[in-house]
Amino acid sequence: MKISRDIYLIGSGQLGFDWTHPADCNVYAVNTGEGVALIDSGTGLSVDQLADNLEEHQFNMADVTHILLTHLHADHSGGAAEIARRTGAQVVLLDEAASVLEAGDEQAIDLPQARMAGFYPADYRWTPCKADIRLQDGEQLTIGRYSFTAMHTPGHSRYDTCYVMEAERGPLVLISGDTIMYGGKISMLSTHDFSVSALASSIERLTAMEPEMLLPGHGQPALSRAAEHIRTASRIFGTLGIPPTIG
Ligand SMILES: [Zn+2]
What we know:
Blueprint: E1 2-4, E2 7-11, E3 27-31, E4 36-39, H1 47-55, E5 64-68, H2 74-77, H3 80-87, E6 90-94, H4 98-103, H5 111-116, E7 133-135, E8 140-143, E9 146-152, E10 161-167, E11 173-177, H6 196-206, E12 213-216, H7 226-238
Parallel strand pairs: 4-5, 5-6, 6-7, 11-12
Antiparallel strand pairs: 1-2, 2-3, 3-4, 8-9, 9-10, 10-11
Helix pairs in contact: 6-7
Residues 71, 73, 156-157, 178, 187 line the site of zinc ion.
């Protein structure tokens, strides 16, 4: 479905629009003018459906040039290997996360626990995937008419990354992964690398920017006044509280 100019949602699970595999994160497609950049890849259990949904908008998988990953949890990164295999797209992520993705280290992303909890089928595996473009915190990647600046925002997990997306024309967009959701909600997990204090610092860092649009990893996007959602979470952290969690 079309979100706004150049931005489409092509996948979303139970925490969002309950459209593709129930565990899928939101998968966005950005028409950069020089191919399509995907934001996250879903679990990999609904790649055919992602392809169909992309075709609804007169694009196809052959147009996909990049897959930007916000973090390594399997609901976001599990489809990267298969999509890259089908399209030849380059996989983009935070430099520090690259070796984990390439090793397919399931322990590092708490996949055994998530599988046991029933989020994934018993035979689900995290396919190792080549990390083609490794960004440092603050590094900018230009794809077509858009630039994407990586911000390492740990907390939800160790290597969470937001991307600030800008074009000469158009709004300032924060691609927030699981760092911050609509309404200032967070995604709290009892995983080994979740950290409330790191998340509070990351969200504090985001308050320095004034994005208009928020594209979160789950739930609904905000098409305007995105900075309000960041400030809501920041206010709660500021009173030593913890913002409400999704799902
Ligand atoms: Zn996650």
